[in-house]
Amino acid sequence: MTNPQALLRLVTWLSPAFPVGSFSYSHGIEQAVEAGLLTGRADTEAWIGHILRHGAGWVDAGLFLAAHRACVGGADLGPVLAQARAQRGSAEMALEASAQGRAFVATLRAVDPACVAWAADPEEAPSHAVAVGAASAQAGVDEETALILFLAALGAALVSAAVRLVPLGQTDGQRITAALNARIPSWAAAARALPPEDLGSAAPMVDWTSMTHETQYTRLFRS
After folding, report:
1. How crowded is the C-beta side of 169, counted as CA atoms within 13 Å?
2. Which terminal Cβ of the chain has fewer Cβ within 10 Å, N or C?
């Protein structure tokens, strides 16, 4: 069992109060609403679930595990960092990952520097998934628990954006979150069993909404 103090560290890092700016990204949901693709609870739940199981959430799960395993095994994180930079479907998705990763590392350098000893280059902007995966390993959180909590936090951030954009009531937002959380452990188990060379996504409509969001006339979110 993971040490409770280590677990509390990770929960703190994944909290909306931790200053990585997750509230400012919708991961294309803003454009999906604009295009009429998301109009209610059912289609929003399906859309976010698809991101987590087949889109960038699935890729992030693989990158998270690769970073966690590299840190546990004392391996070089360079190849994982490079793979994370390459596996983004649009400029906004790359920004979403790198800006949050940079903010995460900068904050940990100030409050918990032992957990970012792997981040030797202060100019590096690692993917958020890689940064949290590596830091959780250094904190001593086991990979299964860490990945489940990471995916739950990602899902919650996307639901929060959808509540504001679709719009949905807070209760419907919690219903979506509960439905996603019921499936996240099985998705995490599937990611842990996936050979690293098979990592990839299958969410072309999510990629399309992200790309077209770059030129959307009015925007509340950065992605």
Report:
1. 3
2. N
Q: Which amino acid is it at 129?
A: A
For 175-208, give the DSSP string: HHHHHHHHHHHHHHHHHHHS-GGG-----HHHHH
Amino acid found at 123: E
pLDDT in tens, 40-81: 999 999 999 999 999 999 999 999 999 999 999 999 999 999
Mean pLDDT, the chain, whole residue set? 94
| Residue matched to tokens 């803003």 | 30
Query: How far, in Å, CA of 45 to CA of 12, rounded?
Result: 25
Q: How far apart are CA 72 and CA 80, in angstroms?
A: 14
Q: So what's the pLDDT on residue 1?
A: 59
For the chain, the straight-line distance linking the first and the last C-alpha, in angstroms and rounded, comes to 37
- Please report the pLDDT score of residue 123 as a whole number: 66
Residue-wise pLDDT for 107-131, tens only, equals: 999 999 988 888 877 667 899 999 9
136-175 residues labelled b (16+ CB within 10 A) or e (exposed): bbbbbbbbebbbbbbbbbbbbbbbbbbbbbbebeeebbee
Distance CA 105, CA 113 (A): 9
Q: Any idea what the Cα angle at residue 118 is, between residues 21 and 98, rounded to 5°?
A: 30
